[in-house]
Write a structure and sequence with these properties.
The complex is a heterotetramer, with two copies of chain A (about 220 residues) and two copies of chain B (about 240 residues). Chain A has a single domain, classed as Glutaconate Coenzyme A-transferase, CATH 3.40.1080.10. Chain A has four helices and 13 strands. Among the domains of chain B are: about 90 residues, Glutaconate Coenzyme A-transferase (3-Layer(aba) Sandwich), CATH 3.40.1080.10; about 35 residues, no CATH class. Chain B contains seven helices and twelve strands. In chain B, a hairpin with a 2-residue loop joins strand 7 and strand 8. In chain B, helix 2 packs parallel to helix 3. Chain B is globular and about 50 Å long. The chains are: A alpha/beta (about 220), B alpha/beta (about 240). Chains in contact: A-B, A-D, B-C, B-D, C-D.
């Protein structure tokens, strides 16, 4: 199974591009560290999104060119960023009031596992000797209106990430709205995983085989 | 393109529905969004629960809204006012309900409403008649009461300037309840004396980030409550 | 008793002056509406106090001359004020965080009654047909480090305001540190009212007669 | 005359006592009060409970304080860091305690600590392993957990400029935890690149009013954590 993953379905960039299509003009958006950050590169022409970063900035712009930028203008991943016009700075409690109070429209996050009821596990693999670290993930999934997950459909070892119930420690209960993978776009519904669309060249059966819970056809 | 600037106060308040909880900013003459409140009177929504520190002055703004019979309940800290009998009369006649909240508890409840905090504890009002009906709990040997976060449907506030993203700056003590009322509202409507281009407010100086604001109305020369009261103006 | 009150003991200004002596240099101070406001006029030379007003201003200055001033630069009593250098504006929740969080050093308030255990009643006389109104009084007494009361020793009708226990509805329980009246300065202690000093020309017996609880001599 | 400007970082941290709870501002390279933390290392206070979003980087600043064995317990949201093994080693050896708190809950607990709120409810962590030991309660049909306000003895923070009253302005995302940590502290100590005359910060632009600041130290050219780490500097 794992060998085929590099050639079948969407690349990371294509996954990010697909997510970007679903975020309406004028949304306030928080993008998680890693693949989710790519989403900003693919926002369709004419849409204006405003990016929030937990460490106190609304109106975050792209990374500065080369090794430019300032050490005190960074994002939640501690990378240097720029400012878009109309930006604002605020302290951490105000920043998470935006999150907890439901003011952020969309958050795009990575995942270890997503369960068919929308449970998300993305902060810990629960290993005995790991140093636990959670950051803002639990606040984001509890507070943001719509949680999109962007992830490879399976792990590097070919294990499904979409599951009946998460075996890893949860980040939040029933919080995920939609999952974008290399193979498909899948909604979390009261009836479970609902296929929205298949990636080009991917069959329903192919996705179902790699999903550890029933998948409702589109 | 994100543009939160609406064409008029009337348009901006058009969809306020009967039974809404409406927060109205301002403390005395400072920050009172008179024009938005008058537009709400014209619009006609009724059975409102209104949150303000007081109950208005004279027969303009909030006092006029109350006099017009649109307010079923006031949530405030100080319903007595020097220049208004409007609330007093309706209250004595049993025609308006009052929830009296200490000013700091009111502010914190509004902030909590905007910050996704359903309840918190405060020492304010412990052992007083305003503790009645509240849950008491001891932390670190001191008694506190539980208070609920207070979100709302609509906030009407006033600021000095906004850009089309809704970023706001205020004028002096007119800031008062406005930033937290913007946070607490599903729809925060702000009247500003000036609409400025995006990018012209220093990101370090923004007081209310645009994320907390849904609609901006340009009211170039806002009226002052105290002057209207002095002139004997009645908006009902 | 009431007839003598205008000639015996301190005037309102003298009471305010006496309070001012007890507020250390560098204190953050909230002065209630009415007589407490007078305190600011009598701060001894060389002391720098910073005045807080609940409606979002630290560094409040005196009232503007004549009918000057601005409608949106006012105090908690809704009177026009000025700014001292080093002032700052903030919203209501931050303003009461200063109060509730114990950041204000001294608050000077009026009173209907003070009980010997420090209970304060100053917001309601509990009359049946009164419109209840509390403002920020309960927050101030619950949060400010030191609560000073400035008040006439007796009501206009000659009734003592310092009592065994308050008959009026409370503003706070055990919150008052010291009471400044026209007749005396009195501390609230675990043993009850403790005389600190008599006003010039006033005897201990005179004060005790007008105090409805035992008064410990200085 | 009120003058909160102290002569040196060493003087300003002189009285920090063993067993204190110390909040340290900063998020990554932004707002890290390196010079104050190094002064605290020199000063020698131990058995500290330290609150920071992370556990420092390299062997400077907070990481150096931990490596020096002064920290009994960390309260943070993310103790793993790219350029430091200091915390990890001590934690695995059972020589340092960890209280893991979601970042937004941490921020709100600090703000509550400064605002006189002993406890509040949040939906964050409900149904997760971090709910363990917390009280769950339902409001409006949704589950929340109770979290405690987190005050502290001392805060070490960094700002851009201060006046002698302690009014502060910050530099961009270096603001992060500093304003709320100033609120939460009995003694908030701030290092600033610039001390400006009283009256030179516009009252509309003050981010932290001086009432939340006890001591100001002038550090003209503060070091950046990432540069020190790159240079391989070790402060222990």
């Amino acid at each position: 199974m794992s060998a085929s993953q590099t050639t079948v379905g969407r690349t990371r960039e294509q996954m990010a591009e697909r997510v970007a299509q679903d975020i309406p003009d004028g949304s306030y958006v928080n993008l998680g560290i890693g693949i989710p950050e790519l989403v900003a590169k693919f926002v369709p022409e004419g849409r204006e999104l405003i990016y929030h970063t937990e460490n106190g900035l609304l109106g975050m712009g792209p990374a500065p060119t080369e090794d430019d930028g300032e050490p005190e203008l960074i994002n939640a991943g501690k990378r240097r960023v720029t400012l878009n016009p109309g930006a604002s700075f605020f302290h951490h409690a105000d920043s998470f009031a935006m999150i907890r109070g439901g003011h952020i429209d969309v958050c795009v996050l990575g995942a270890f596992q997503v369960a068919q009821n929308g449970d998300l596990a993305n902060w810990s693999t629960g290993e005995e000797d790991a140093i636990p670290a959670v950051g803002g993930a639990m606040d984001l999934v509890a507070g943001v209106k719509t949680i999109y997950v962007i992830t490879q459909h399976c792990t590097k070892h070919g294990e499904p990430k979409l599951v009946e119930s998460c075996s890893y420690p949860l980040t939040g209960v029933g919080v995920v709205s939609r999952v974008y993978t290399d193979l498909a776009v899948i909604d979390v519904t009261p009836k479970g995983f609902q296929l929205v669309e298949l990636s080009p060249g991917v069959s329903f059966e192919y996705v179902q085989e790699r999903t550890a819970a029933p998948l409702l056809p589109a | 393109m994100m543009n939160k600037v609406w064409s008029s106060a009337a348009e901006a308040v058009k969809d306020v529905s009967d039974g809404s909880t409406v927060m109205i900013g301002g403390f005395g003459d400072a920050g009172s969004p008179i024009e938005l409140v008058h537009a709400l009177i014209d619009q006609g929504a009724k059975d409102l629960t209104v949150v303000n520190n007081n109950t208005g002055s004279g027969e303009v703004g909030l006092a006029a809204l109350i006099k017009a019979g649109r307010v079923a309940k006031m949530i405030c800290s100080f319903p007595r006012t020097a220049h208004s009998e409007v609330f007093t009369e309706l209250y004595r006649a049993g025609q308006i309900e009052l929830e009296l909240v200490p000013q700091g508890t009111l502010a914190e409840r509004i902030r909590a409403g905007g910050a996704g905090i359903p309840a918190f504890y405060t020492a304010t009002s412990v052992g007083t008649p305003l503790e009645e009906g509240k849950e008491r709990r001891t932390f670190g040997g001191r008694d506190y009461v539980m208070e609920y976060g207070l979100p709302c449907d609509v906030s009407l506030i006033k600021a000095k300037a906004a850009d089309r993203y809704g970023n706001l700056i205020y004028n002096k003590t007119a800031r008062n309840f406005a930033p937290i009322m913007a946070m607490a509202a599903k729809t925060a409507i702000v009247q500003v004396a000036e609409v400025v281009p995006v990018g012209s407010i220093d990101p370090e100086h923004v007081v209310t980030p645009g994320i907390f604001v849904q609609r901006v109305v340009h009211i170039k020369a806002p009226q002052h409550e105290s002057e209207l009261v002095k002139q004997g103006v009645s908006y009902v």
